[in-house]
Design a protein that fits this description.
Its main location: membrane. This protein is mainly α. The chain has a single domain, classed as ABC transporter involved in vitamin B12 uptake, BtuC (Orthogonal Bundle). Helix 3 packs antiparallel against helix 8 and helix 5 packs antiparallel against helix 10.
């Protein structure tokens, strides 16, 4: 039971990262490699702030700000510096690695005997593992509510239009460069926030903890879309969170089958690859059914 509760809690926390990735990957329709630098940057800022005596909630909000900063830099390199988005993200991700070492002072910094947002007094009476579920649910609810309100404003619709058809959006007078910068800032802010929360849940920050995070986020998005199909925009945000939880259950099953935690990244890549190929399998399956009915290929 404790493993199931832990998987749900981890699913909520990692789901915040998936929400951020959803904004760039699905709405703006481009890959943002900044994710793998933003995530440990948010964790490093949060853990360093807590170890220096800052309030855990304030430290968590600082991780949000740290993520928005990396998104701003990537956005400026992309829109003003005319650097391709993939390369801009890699440049920021690479530079942030050294900054994380400066912030932490070493490769790994722990939170032993430090107060975190998950060890707040009002959570003390909850059963083991439920603190991460409770905190994760609160932050997920806030994130989805604020994103939902934003996306249905004129500014949010301009942001969506930029991702749908940039030329059309520009012809309507929308400053698409600003929309891209805004999207990258909001997305990476959520990713930095996830880094801060997960670092507190794990009890440490590590400069290498961002490796593979983009695969984890994409897996949550794809699993959510495959599992729930066509949905409204807000429902898709909820599906991303549910996809993140389902992904954690997949990892839990993998552990129960005897695999090592060292295999997680390989399993993540395989799960993502299978989910991405699922539409192809469905198409072939449907085509097979048509053949049986005597319908020829068009």
């Amino acid at each position: 039971m404790s493993l199931i509760v832990s998987a749900i809690g981890q699913g909520f926390l990692w789901g915040i990262l998936a929400l951020g990735l959803f904004l760039t990957f699905r709405i703006l329709d481009f890959p943002d490699m900044t994710v793998e630098g933003t995530f440990p940057f948010g964790a490093a800022v949060c853990v360093a702030a807590i170890t220096h005596g800052l309030n855990p909630l304030t430290a968590t909000l600082l991780s949000l700000g740290a993520g928005m900063l990396t998104g701003l830099i990537t956005g400026l390199l992309y829109t003003k510096g005319k650097i391709p988005i993939l390369l801009a993200g890699i440049l920021v991700m690479t530079g942030v690695y050294s900054i994380n070492l400066r912030i932490l002072g070493k490769a790994t910094l722990g939170l032993l005997n430090k107060q975190t947002i998950l060890s707040a007094p009002f959570l003390a009476n909850l059963p083991e593992g439920f603190a991460s579920v409770f905190i994760g649910l609160i932050f997920v609810a806030i994130a989805i509510t604020l994103l939902g309100l934003f996306l249905y404003t004129d500014l949010g619709q301009a942001f969506i239009a930029t991702g749908d058809n940039e030329k059309m959006a520009r012809s309507l007078g929308i400053n698409t460069d600003r929309m891209k910068i805004l999207g990258l800032m909001v997305a990476n802010g959520l990713i930095g926030l996830a880094g801060g929360l997960i670092a507190q849940n794990n009890g440490y920050a590590d400069v290498n903890m961002g490796t593979g995070t983009i695969v984890i986020g994409l897996a949550a998005i794809i699993i959510g879309e495959v599992a729930y199909g066509e949905l409204t925009l807000i429902a898709r945000l909820v599906a991303v969170i549910l996809g993140s939880i389902l992904y954690r259950f997949v990892l839990l099953i993998v552990l129960q089958l005897g695999f090592s935690t060292n295999d997680f990244r390989l399993i993540s890549a395989l799960v993502l690859a299978l989910c991405l190929m699922l539409p192809l399998f469905q198409k072939k399956f449907n085509f097979g059914r048509l053949l049986k009915k005597g319908v020829s290929r068009p």
